[in-house]
Amino acid sequence: MLKAFDAGVECVGIKKGWKGFLENLTIPLNIAEHDDLHTIGGTLLYTSRTNPFKGVDSKEEKSKELGKKFDDLGIDALIAIGGDLKWFPF
Q1: Burial of 21: CB neighbours in 10 Å, binned 0-12, 13-18, 19+
Q2: Does the model's pTM come out above 0.85?
Q3: Engineering a disulfide at 48: which of 16, 36, 42, 83 sits with its beta carbon 3.0 to 4.6 angstroms away?
Q4: Is 45 exposed, middle or buried (0-12, 13-18, 19+ CB in 10 A)?
Q5: For residue 15, how far is the Cα from the chain centroid?
Q6: Residue 16 · residue 45 · CB < 8 Å
Q7: Contact 14, 8 (CB under 8 A)
Q8: What gap in Å lies between CA 29 and CA 25, rounded to an integer?
Q9: pLDDT in tens, 17-53
Q10: 27 backbone dihedrals φ, ψ, rounded to 5°
Q11: Domain-by-domain residue ranges, the chain?
């Protein structure tokens, strides 16, 4: 986040992982408020065990749907911190 701030990039956190992504639960990540987060530990975004592909017939169609959500939320890039991305198809 520090490098993004230095480069003038706006950062947005997605609360509760994929659950928050699907439900549009985002918060702005302001460097002034969160620059010491690494010293206190824990998470301000929380977690979930949501798998957006669970029970889906077409992973390709679901991937397209998720890609559109990035556009809807105005997100150009995603940096995943922690978690298990091995099931994400792209």
Answers
A1: buried
A2: no
A3: 16
A4: middle
A5: 7
A6: yes
A7: no
A8: 13
A9: 889 999 999 998 887 776 776 677 667 788 888 899 9
A10: -135, 145
A11: 1-25+59-90
